[in-house]
Design goal:
about 675 residues; elongated; single chain; four-stranded antiparallel beta sheet; alpha+beta
Amino acid sequence: MRPQRFFLLSVVAAESAALYVVYRNPFFPILAVILAALGLTGGWRLTLSSAQKAIASLAILVIYFILWRLFPYSRADILGSLGYRVTYVFAQYFISLQLLELWLDTERHAATAALYGMLALTCAGNIFSSPSEQALYALCSVLFVASLVLYLRSCTMELPSPARPARGRYVWIAAALGAVVLGGLSVRSVLYAHREFLSALFTNAPTIPGSVYTAGFSRDVKLGDVTRLKLSSAENSTALRVFSKDAPGYLRGMAFTYYNPATAEWQKSLAERPLAPSDPSLFPNLPAARTGCSRFAFPSHDPRPCHAIDVWPAPLLTEGMFSPLGTTVLEAPVTGLRVDENQIADSDELIGGVNYTSYVPQPAPRAHLSLAMRKRLVQPPAIDPRVHQLADRIFEGCTTPRQKIDAVVGYFLGNYRYNIGIRIPPGQDPLTYFLLEHPAAHCEYFAAGAAVLLRMGGVPARYITGFVVEERNSVGRYWVARNKDAHAWVEAWDDAAGWVIVDATPGAGVPSPTVGSSIGYILDYIRFRLQELTAMTRVNGLSGLLAWLGNRAGGLWTLIASPGPAATAVKLALAAALALLLWRRWRRRRPARIDARIQRLHALLAAADARLARLGLVRARNETLHQFAARILQHDPPGEPASAARAPLAAWYLRYAAVRYGGSAHDEDIILLERDSR
């Protein structure tokens, strides 16, 4: 084992440790160290030409780009080096190029491996890391510099004596690398000291096209925020994947109690209570909780059998927990929840892309509405008196909450059209203008108008934002909500039925079941499995990774064992792959045909090298025949005259090189070489 490969392993390990310290994802760093250790053994090597190496490097970059697009990294408190999360991908890419150098059948990779290492360490930086992460990153950087200096020195030590740099050059190499790393750490320290300013700068920057917005799912929401999801360039991107027996329908993300006409903004209730994990004995009719997850019983918990709804939010959708009306139990990988009076749950420990499960009793239990909450939810905002007159006309002849709900829905469906977007004249209150002038508008205006009118009729109502989930992915057998399925509606209190969903938006504006393309569903299923892998690794570490591999192996076996065209296609693909593998192994075992003259030349060179090795002249592995001949002329074997030993030996190696690499080896030339080698 050559020492430079060992030091290159240390370099890769230091970079991988820095990557894990900042990004807290162990999968790639562990895999990189394992591959580097396997490459260290030298049992198998890649032999690539310069063109093949360039193609391989480009292919690796394309693969990482595809993975990034399928499943972008989304930890909420990380913006990446200089504010771009994609640098995490480039850090992985440069480490992968180092691994490629380690597996190549060559030792001439000192400069490129060093360059890749410095680029990887730079891209792994994160200016928003905590002080402890900052210190660990600095330690990894120092270890990286030490390993890199040892690696470069070990590479130069194996060169022939005339090619070795002066000893003082190592000092300059170490000083330069140390200056680069320490300078980078100083810049990072300055940036970290001004993190608040930078955070505001990046927060106010334009949203990157294609990213997933979280508008409409915060504590305060303006009319129009939810529609930004529908109008974004990522309107068809998946926001939620839901495993449920039936179509989940309306999944609520936020519930709002107060409307402020001055800002056209809905605000959440501040009345929240913390929830600690509940005793498992409270759930006799539920299966055991998943590893790493806790269960939380809401105040309305009912021990009856429940319908489970497992929600996988998109990695960038980090605000709110989406669950159906009537949820009484939530299971999530957190240690605590906050629940408001509208039964909306949230947690600061949520990780983007990690799933949680809602349990809804079947049939749903009768809810309870306190007098204080009823008073808050029937209080209309301070709005134009003409809106009150409109409400009186709408509710004329209505005596029950159900009749008033139907009257409001009928009013909007009979007098309005749906349109994405609305023009509000300057100086006008948007909601008042919508209710009195009847312009075409989108779901948020219909929901806000219905909530305000119902309150004026004495019906408790709250404004809800979330997703309507009706689309089925037939490949993954789960339900899909896309950004365009974001919606706003109302939950109203009916004294006879409890909370009911009221959707006053005309049919064109209500998300409805759609059928996508088979290719699109396959790609979405692949994205989901990658998301599932990351989520299980984040929550349970190595055991989560092993569980994911076991689940995928079990799923593949189930697919193979099942009948149908999909199972047949998988079987044919596996059979073809096995046949190809066996054929390639058979071809490798066939004896290679080597020209007899080339074999004679190999034997001659081996014998000549052995004789000179006994005299103290050892030809280096990466030393050409011409370089070795030049070195022979500078060496005096002990006990022999210099003129008698040097010139004939050097001349023989030069003649051998001319015969071997001259284009064709003739028998006469080989006979002369054999005679002169004796």
